[in-house]
Amino acid sequence: MPRLVYSEDELLASHSYARPQQVAGHRLHGGFDPDGDYVPPRLLHRGPALEAWTARLRERGGDLLPADASLLAGIRFPSEAQQKLLIQEGLGQTFWNTLTITGHIEARGRILADMTFPELQTVIDEDISEMAIGHLNRGLLKAHGLDEGGEPQRGIGGHDVMWFALRDLAFGPDAYPEPEVPENIARPDSQAEPFPQLPIGIVRTVYFLANLLMIEFRAERGFSLTERMLLDPDLFRERRAEAQEAAEVVNRIRRDEEVHVHSLRLYLGELCELDLRACDGSRVSGRELVDTLWGGIVQWATVEQPPLAAAQSRRLLRERILAHADGERILREFESLEEAA
Q: CA-CA distances (angstroms) from residue 134 to 116, 156, 292?
């Protein structure tokens, strides 16, 4: 029978690597097996555990939260063609900024390794010790945080340093000034209080997990575009080999993030099959809680936020393009390449 209970040390354990991952002078997490294939970090026991918990959930009639990155398959600004034009015209700062901001946002994810979340068991009558949600404070969220922000005290970078390394491979170091990093890319937490009968810490924990899943979907949507740009033979012509290596690093990040997406869908899927005990002794369906919180996040990420972000980017890019010596021509071509709504 598959194991369903793990210690924190087990969930943080990695495979023995034939060689570590090293890129552009950085020691990074994960490594390679004897055949040269990349193996993500902290999967020695975490991988089998996630498989076992998923199988048990399905045996109970449940499943992972039915959501994927296709939720965000709307109009992109700038479009892929626009992004390519900017790089070809010597205006690669937009793409460079995207890679840099992604690295800084990934670094923030390390907070998961240092936080202690409210115990969901306190409001759930059913024993969750053999579920993934029973291990959130027992290694799962810590592993997620270390994946994102690395272990700087050991000199090992996570996704944060991986993004900086692949950026420098493609552009060379210090190609542009550091961009301003948004304070928050998730839906504001103040929106997460539609269940006053439940302890606010519990509601916010579930909301946090759902918000984190949407952030992962947003990142996932950008992976393939980033890889295509780095692999495009018309771009980064003077650093073709370095851009190729950078694309390989993006693919390794994708492998790592698949674990995060699966995990978060699993946590929310498990919650959907449970009832939560309210402060007044009544019961709240976990499915109602998850569906309500997730629905609000999807509304924000697919309807409310995109036009605001596009309008802000449009103003910034217009100024950047017009500062170019041939800005008027580039702007006309840029605007002709915008995707139609």
A: 13, 28, 22
Type of residue found at 216: E
Which pair of structure tokens corresponds to residue 198? 């439940």
How many CA atoms lie within 13 Å of 336's alpha carbon, on the beta-carbon side? 7
pLDDT digits (tens, 9 = 90+) for 92-134: 999 999 999 999 999 999 999 999 999 999 999 999 999 999 9
DSSP 19: E
Angle between helices 80-88 and 200-231 (to 10 degrees): 50
Q: Is 150 exposed, middle or buried (0-12, 13-18, 19+ CB in 10 A)?
A: buried
How many residues belong to the chain? 341
DSSP assigned state of 71: G
pLDDT tens-digit map of 260-313: 999 999 999 999 999 999 988 899 999 999 999 999 999 999 988 888 888 888
What is the rounded CA–CA span in Å between residue 18 and residue 21? 10
Nearby residues of 143 by Cβ (< 8 Å), 6 or more positions away: 11, 12, 42, 46
Q: Give one DSSP letter per residue of 143-202, joined into a string.
A: HHHHHHH-BGGGTBB-HHHHHHHHHHHHH-TT-SPPPPPPS--SPPGGG--S-TTS-HHH
- CB hemisphere CA count around 235 (13 angstroms): 27
Within 13 A of 118's CA, how many CA atoms are on the CB side? 16
Q: Give the integer Cα–Cα distance in Å for 279 and 95.
A: 49
Q: How many helices (H) and strands (E) does the chain have?
A: 11, 5
| Residues contacting residue 154 through CB under 8 Å, at least 6 positions apart | none
Residue pointed to by tokens 């978060």: 264
What residues are paired with 157 via a beta bridge?
Answer: 28
For residue 283, the SS3 value is strand
